[in-house]
Amino acid sequence: MKFLQLSLLVAMFAACQPQEAAKTTAVDGSKAIADTLNYTTIQWMDSVQNIGTLTMGQNPTINFRFKNTGDKNLFIVSAQPGCGCTIADYPKEPILPGKEGVIKAGFDTKGQSVGAFHKGITVITNTLVNVNHNLIFSGEIKKDGDSNAGLDRQPVAVPNDSAH
Fold first, then answer.
1. How far apart are the C-alpha atoms of 42 and 74, rounded to whole Å?
2. Angle CA(53)–CA(54)–CA(57) in degrees, nearest 5?
3. How would you class 105 by CB atoms within 10 Å of its CB: exposed for 0-12, middle for 13-18, buried for 19 or more?
4. Sign of the four-CA dihedral 127, 83, 118, 54
5. For labelling, which of 18, 74, 155, 159 has a CA lying 20 to 30 Å from the CA of 37?
6. For the chain, how far is it from start to end, CA to CA, in angstroms?
């Protein structure tokens, strides 16, 4: 009977090991920011982008590429859009030294003003010098079917030939 209890105890202990290991590999942003000895460096390939002219109602995705140029794991702690028309998705797992990643932004033009726009996302990382990084995208929105968006249309005076 004691052998059976001991076997069950060993089996339960062994079954718990992978779960405990998984808990320790989960990313905790506050721990990554607090651990300044393990800060790294980042290189943005395209932190500022002009995405061109959009038609009202389009919802483009903008990719901001980066590389971990340091010798420690890079953690993207958060990516906070500057307004409700923009969303951001970022890697939740550590980016290993020398590896690349992407932060994806989505932009909803519905309800936006026609004309130029300028949007931003603040990214927090475990990086030396500065943990805050600003990603910016800009462009122009035109009305659907308006091929001359942004051009002022002035009435043209037509001369009256009957006066001659």
1. 8
2. 165
3. buried
4. positive
5. 18
6. 122
Other Cβ atoms closer than 10 A to 137: 21
pLDDT per position in the chain (164 positions), as tens?
444 343 433 333 333 333 333 333 445 777 888 888 999 999 999 999 999 999 999 999 999 999 999 999 999 999 999 999 999 999 999 999 999 999 999 999 998 999 999 999 999 999 999 999 999 999 999 987 654 444 433 333 444 444 44
Residue type, 100: E
Residue type for position 8: L
**Look-up of token digits 């290189």:** 43
Which residue carries 């030939």 as its tokens? 161
Provide the H-helix boundaries in 26-163. Answer: 29-34
Q: Look-up: residue for tokens 């690349």? A: 100
Give the number of other Cβ atoms within 10 Å of residue 20's Cβ: 8
Q: State pTM to two decimals.
A: 0.71
The tokens describing 111, both together, are 């309800």
